[in-house]
Structure of Putative tRNA (cytidine(34)-2'-O)-methyltransferase:
Amino acid sequence: MNVVLVHPEIPPNTGNIGRLCCAVGATLHLVKPLGFSIDDRNLKRAGLDYWKKLRVLEWPDLEAYLSAVDHGKIVLTSSKRGDVYHRIHFEPGDHILFGPETTGLSQDMFLRFPNRIARIPIDLSKVRSLNLSTAAGIVVYEALKQIGALPALDT
């Protein structure tokens, strides 16, 4: 599983998502420009010591990332459009894309990849969106559940 943050802006969110990826064996892709330095102490604090164990791939821009991946594996996320996340058919090796915290993914992305857009239902009259790391956790665990790849419980 691959979690892709397109132009993330808030270091603690990226750190938390890095920790999530480490916990489930997912690869974290960071698409530049980033709103912070990868050495940011807030990023490291949120990711704790797990950051060293995480597989992170950095991309210079969105086009470089898109030219390197199978477009059939791309799943976009949105707070305003798409199908409810648990109705999306996830497959091993999928790339789940999350946009910047303040704007989400661009309209161009939704036009380019209109068939696999995951949305978490929320009451938009009360909030604009969920926190990025919360949304990532919800969608990633659903994807892992569907493909039978949830981490084993330690007993």
Summary: The chain is about 30% helix and 20% strand. Strands lie at 2-6, 27-31, 56-59, 74-78, 83-84, 95-98, 117-119.
